[in-house]
Amino acid sequence: MGAALIELSGIERVFQLGDSEVHALRRLDVSISAGEYVAVMGPSGSGKSTLLNLLGLLDRPNAGVYRLEGRDVTTLSAEEQARVRSERIGFVFQSFHLVPRLTAAENIALPMILAGIAPAQRSARVARALADYGLENRADHRPDQLSGGQRQRVAIARATIMQPALILADEPTGNLDRATGEEVMRLLEELNARGVTLIVVTHDGGLGARARRQLLMEDGALHHDHWRPADTTPDRCALPT
Amino acid sequence: MRTPDLIRFARDAATGNPLRTFLLVLAMAIGVAAVVVLTALGDGARRYVLNEFSSIGSNLVIVLPGRSQTGGFSPGNAITSTPRDLTVDDAQALLRASAVHRVAPLAVGTSEISVGGKLREVMVAGTTAEFIDVRRLALAQGRFLPPGDWRRGASEAVIGAKIRDEMFGREPALGQLVRVGDRRFRIVGVLASTGQGLGMNTDELVIVPVALAQAMFNSNTLFRILVEASSREAIEPAKAQVTEIIRLRHEGELDVTIITQDAVLATFDRLLGTMTLAVAGIAAISLAVAGILVMNVMLVSVAQRTAEIGLLKALGATGATIRNAFLTEAAMLSIAGAVLGFALGHAGAAIIRQLYPAYPAFPPDWAVLAGLGTALLTGIVFGVLPARQAARLDPVQSLAKR
Ligand SMILES: Nc1ncnc2c1ncn2[C@@H]1O[C@H](COP(=O)(O)OP(=O)(O)OP(=O)(O)O)[C@@H](O)[C@H]1O
Ligand SMILES: [Mg+2]
């Protein structure tokens, strides 16, 4: 199989809180291959979100090296990191984070607008995304006119509109009821089935168990790296430890 | 981010909070409107005065009896004591000067005019045939005083439009005999109406030959000698020659004041131009206030939209993109305010012109450009700080904010 999509080695993240230091991540070594489906689990405050922010280049580690697609991205400038986020990474948040004054279609188009893609190409892609996520009739609705599930579908459409290699979802079902959450997970898993690497932070053991690989965090360290044996597992040989 | 998208994004952000946008645009508009209206007033005053002075005649050199202390023009010079009479002979002597085209002596006094039982106090101007050309006056009816010996004169009078209306109403005035003081005059002409002016109001004037006026007021002295130089370039030579001639005639003493219309105009122009500038400066302060308002409102906007900024960064926006988005918004609000203020200011100036038709309250071009430019500049300059603050926000912390 190909080289690892994500390679973390010796990652440390320390927050300074007054005099005390909070070690949100300690000596983290993880490798994730392209196309994997990973659930990050662990108790509250164990560093799951911190890890996801680092993977999404929204945050920088205090020590260690993060390689994305073979490239050391920790040393990139802020502008270069923004470009990587724009082209390679899609985010899905617990609280959706839609821009309230923009319609569903405009929210979905936002990453393309920021990337400077031409309007004609944008509208074609937005139309396809709206159809893919069953939002055709909601294109002109603003977020406050949408249900939670619809909002998260808009968010997923937005996260995928730039066709990223990596989707990072921090508790994407945390604000949804069980049935809607199931549906959102199914959409994310479909993306993964089409080859997108999917990393989901979740508190829900049931949902986490659906991933082929579970990273169990505890107090900023990787406590357990569990592989669910399955015949469809793509790259067991790339096992990191 | 493409420019049209940037503009649309900024516009949506601005219209997303109508009250904030309205207040900002209003503040900016008031600033620009203040500049436009106040400079219209200032420049209108300048134009009004210049117009009035120009209407007196052109290429004028004016000789006043009495020496002015400062040499420059000031309204106080008009009431200095008269050590030596300024006479009709003095006036006639000025005709010898090569740079002088025409000369009109002017003696002034008040008297009463009566005709058919109607009585009215009037200003009587004694002068010669040249007066109508030197002062650029127009006749409505008849003719002006005939040319001839300045020391004599037929008992003929030319009256102003208002005198004509009041004394004769619908009756014909030409050829009528009137009594002015203790003398009788035949009316030979009526001046065209000129309306209220800065100088002598010719509408309420009775013009008679200078010799008769001096006899009537029992005085030898003139009120003014109006000298018209032969060209614009000849004004200074004419002034020099006039000075020399008067000095010679007054035994080497220069006991008159000689002013040129140009100098008076230049003084007023400078004075009123400075006033307009000062007024524009005061108005510009309101623009600076508007700029500070822009900054505060944009800072609040950045704080309110922190989560959105974090999101935009997560979606791949660079710091520069976010800075540009906020700067564009500030610039758009400023432009909207400036345009609105421009319209309001012009409307205000138009209303002033409507209320006072004689007053040319037009804002000068430079003030309008400066007002618009300052508005745009303050909007952008005061927008920089909030925009940079937005661009520097940490994405993780911004996203965590609700
Ligand atoms: N900006 C920060 N400043 C200081 N400490 C922080 C900051 N962000 C996170 N931490 C600390 O780092 C640790 C890990 O936080 P993180 O948000 O990654 O936890 P988490 O696993 O996502 O928890 P949860 O399940 O509650 O979301 C926590 O102890 C937290 O208090
Ligand atoms: Mg978390």
TrEMBL record, chain A:
Pfam families: ABC_tran (PF00005). SMART domains: AAA. GO terms for cellular component: membrane protein complex; plasma membrane. Residues 6-239 form the ABC transporter domain. The keyword Cell membrane applies. Belongs to the ABC transporter superfamily. Macrolide exporter (TC 3.A.1.122) family. This is ABC transporter related. One of its GO terms (biological process) is response to antibiotic. It comes from Accumulibacter regalis. Keywords: Antibiotic resistance, ATP-binding, Cell membrane, Membrane, Nucleotide-binding, Transmembrane, Transmembrane helix, Transport. GO terms for molecular function: ATP binding; ATP hydrolysis activity; transmembrane transporter activity. InterPro entries: AAA+_ATPase, ABC_transporter-like_ATP-bd, ABC_transporter-like_CS, ABC_transpr_LolD-like, MacB-like_ATP-bd, P-loop_NTPase. It comes from the Bacteria. The keyword Transport applies.
From TrEMBL, chain B:
Keywords: Cell membrane, Membrane, Transmembrane, Transmembrane helix. It is found in: Cell membrane. GO terms for molecular function: transmembrane transporter activity. The keyword Thylakoid does not apply. The keyword Transmembrane helix applies. Residues 21-244 form the MacB-like periplasmic core domain. GO terms for cellular component: plasma membrane. Its main location: membrane. Pfam families: FtsX, MacB_PCD. Belongs to the ABC-4 integral membrane protein family. This is ABC3 transporter permease protein domain-containing protein. The lineage of its organism: Bacteria, Pseudomonadati, Pseudomonadota, Betaproteobacteria, Candidatus Accumulibacter.
